[in-house]
Fold:
Amino acid sequence: MSAVLPWAIALIAAATPIIPSTPDLGKAEARCRPGESGPSFLLDIVGLKDRQGKLKVEVYPANDRDFLQDDNILIAQGKTFRRVEVPVQHGSAVQLCVRVPGPGRYAVTVLHDRDANRKFGLSVDGVGFGGNPKLGMGKPKAAAATIIAGNSPTRERIVMNYRRGLLSFGPIRAL
Structure:
């Protein structure tokens, strides 16, 4: 039996909540509108393994207790949670925009759900975090996955990571 990375279990748990999840939670507040100039993240997604499936961006409070917490719980507690989910764009550049409540620090995740099953598959899907932390045996700390939003769109580059071997995740190496 192969070992499973503990942070991957946390991602799976976040994708499989205890309370029945509503896929639209956090979406209404999250999508950027054309020409909008308020606080948001304009994310350049790089290192995609392929152009299959969907991309899901989620924004959490920038603390370890709330980072990757169930969306239902965060929203019920009045805490920040945003989600943008879109099919992977075909073409050269992939860019996503997600609104945030105001300037400040937020932890950000990006899931490349290659099979579009709405769940993190350790051997199939890719993951990226704000700040592009080096991934190890545990999930990154919220501080390592944090982006600081200003009063206008804040641009950030997110590098996607995929499983490499039994116990490591990292960017895809150029051929």
